[in-house]
Amino acid sequence: MSESIGNWVKRDPNIVPETITWSSEKRVYEWKSSYTKDSAPSDPALEKELFSSESRINSGIHFKSYAEMSVSVKDGPPGLTPIVSFDDAGLDSVVLENVKRMEFPEPTPIQRNALPILMQNYDLMACAQTGSGKTAAFLVPTISKLVSKIFKGQLATIRRRPGQAAWKATPLVLIILPTRELAIQIFEEARRFTYMTPLRPVVIYGGAESRVQKEQIQKGCDILVATPGRLKDMVERGIVSLARVRVAILDEADRMLDMGFEPQIRQIMMSSDLARDEGRQTLMFSATFPRDIQTLAREFLKEDFCRLRVGRIGGTTSLIKQNIIHVEDYEKKETIFNTLLDYPPSRTLIFVETKRTADALDDFLYNKKFPTCSIHGDRDQRERELALRAFKEGKSPILIATAVASRGLDIKDVMHVINYDLSNDIDEYVHRIGRTARAGNPGTATSFYNSNNIPLAPTLTKLLLECKQEVPDFLQSYISPNVTFETDDFYDEEAEPAGYGANAGTGDDPGSTWGNQADSGWGSNQTQGPANDGW
Ligand SMILES: Nc1ncnc2c1ncn2[C@@H]1O[C@H](COP(=O)(O)OP(=O)(O)OP(=O)(O)O)[C@@H](O)[C@H]1O
Fold first, then answer.
1. In sequence order, what are the beta bridge partners of 173?
2. Ligand 1: distance of its center to the CA of 277 in Å?
3. CA angle at residue 78 from 72 to 81, to 5 degrees?
4. Which CATH superfamily, name and number, covers 68-157+168-191+200-310?
5. How deeply is 434 buried, as exposed, middle or buried, from its count of CB atoms within 10 A (0-12, 13-18, 19+)?
6. What is the distance in A from the centroid of ligand 1 to the CA of 410?
7. With a cut of 70, which residues of the chain have pLDDT below it?
8. Mean pLDDT for all residues in the chain
9. Is the model's pTM score more than 0.90?
10. pLDDT tens digit string along 252-291?
11. What secondary structure letter does DSSP report for 452?
12. DSSP 497
């Protein structure tokens, strides 16, 4: 009997090694105090690991289409001129060199506009489509500004002296994210842009050994990438002080501030420990921004914060071919089996609603000889890291996931996203399908729709029309005769309340995943904060 099915190749059996190197232990450029900007040596092995084209997404054939998106900037610097090339952005030459190593052909619209805004120290709330380069939009200017100051002797990085007992790390940049996987990914990106600079990035997240993360922090921590629970823990244990933070960044800010995380974020952002002088910059980025969350977010920003929007808030990219097919629950297994065989084997991400379904579907497909693995919040962190690595490395090119993987993950060559269970939250749908078609590459999203998804039908139909996608027969009745594709802007207090999509993701919707709490990274030793709902 064949070990594989269709054209799929059998799963690599070596996905579970004896020991695991935590992602937080990955090597960063080690700057020595004797180095200067001109004398710092390169590290060829690290450079290869960080910048080789296998390790990152190459921009795709549709990259130029980003330029067609409408851009709106409110309350930004007077006379703002978007950059045309990274060379115009006034970046420190070492950071610019790292951008060049990434082989970005040109800045994306969010980068064109965010770079000059952030170089001028504005607080910012920014929204742009999935996969359009928001991470570099906040990391590059932030790292460049600090590196320039350090090279000019205007700012110091503080390190623990050998044998020094009472020492707290004092990061200059704090980046908070809703999930462990996302924190690891942003750390990876920070490793790239800080290459050959004195800034040392560190990542901390729940589920992995605190001791290992503490050791990394104690080697020096200038950029701290963290999930909220582990951050609070490290601050409370006196390992980290936020007193020197110059730039605080909330990525996936809407998720961070939704019902599950608001208290923790409020506690961190409002804590007396966090530097609150006028010099601190606060940035929020996401592809979606429900209006009630925008209102909340304002509390953390300076009064004159800038709003930057590319395309419609909550919109998606037309680079994704969206198929919606009618599948009753009892037909789903047969349909997924056939769907996987209908497409050429390629990296495929399958979203399900519950951990139970994730396990059951993984067993079903694995027994049918498909090369699957799965990730959800009941898996321990070791299993989660191994599953994601096996998927990224192609050892297990079909990954079954709960919403823990819906946001932000940037994985090369994900050609197909399948919503085995559709979420009834349009923002969640946008984030999930956004795992494909990144950086101008094409991709397909197939969603199994049935009567359980009626609450999603109106917004989904409108999204399909907006992206010029085929509307299936069973959704035709949801096409409004007066449909308009208004560009939803950031909420303006004086403007009309709630329009299209305004309620998306508020948790009001009974089927919404927003009522759940994402995997905060609250370690198992946490006694405070949201119970991990098991994402
Ligand atoms: N200017 C650029 N040119 C080419 N590729 C780019 C550019 N900027 C970023 N990228 C690449 O595009 C991919 C997507 O970027 P990123 O992960 O920042 O997207 P995002 O907007 O944060 O998406 P999401 O909302 O899903 O988190 C990354 O692999 C990144 O390296």
1. 223, 247
2. 31
3. 65
4. P-loop containing nucleotide triphosphate hydrolases (3.40.50.300)
5. buried
6. 8
7. 1-2, 16-18, 259, 272, 275-278, 485-535
8. 85
9. no
10. 888 877 767 788 888 888 776 776 666 789 999 998 888 8
11. G
12. P
> What's the Cα-to-Cα distance from 142 to each of 39, 138, 245, 280, 334, rounded to whole Å?
23, 6, 12, 12, 49
pLDDT at 505: 31
| DSSP H helical ranges for 134-246 | 134-151, 180-193, 210-218, 228-236
Decide if 414 contacts 434 (C-beta within 8 A).
no
In whole angstroms, what is the distance from residue 346 CA to residue 397 CA?
Answer: 7
Instruction: For residue 456, give the 3-state DSSP assignment.
Output: helix
249 phi and psi, to 5 degrees? -125, 125
Q: What is the pLDDT of residue 500?
A: 33
Cα of 439 vs centre of ligand 1, distance in Å, is 6
Protein residues whose CB sits closer than 6 Å to any atom of ligand 1 = 56-57, 59, 104-105, 107-108, 111, 128, 130-136, 287, 408, 410, 434, 438-439
Q: Where are the alpha helices (DSSP H) in 369-453?
A: 381-392, 426-433
| Residue range(s) occupied by CATH 3.40.50.300 in the chain | 68-157+168-191+200-310, 320-478
Show the CA angle centred on residue 205, arms to residues 308 and 393, nearest 5°: 85
Structure token pair of residue 490: 């950031």
The helix (run of H) or strand (run of E) holding residue 275 is none
Residue whose Cα lies nearest atom 15 of ligand 1: it is 133
Which residues make Cβ contacts (< 8 Å) with residue 533, sequence separation at least 6? 260, 377, 516, 517
- Classify 320-478 by CATH class: alpha beta
Nearest to 154 by CA among 115, 189, 214, 198: 198
Contact 449, 326 (CB under 8 A): yes
Q: What pLDDT, in 10s, does the model give residues 283-309?
A: 999 988 888 788 888 888 988 899 999
Using the structure block, give the residue that is written with the tokens 């919404």.
512
What 8-state DSSP symbol labels residue 255?
H
Give the position of tokens 């921004």: 289
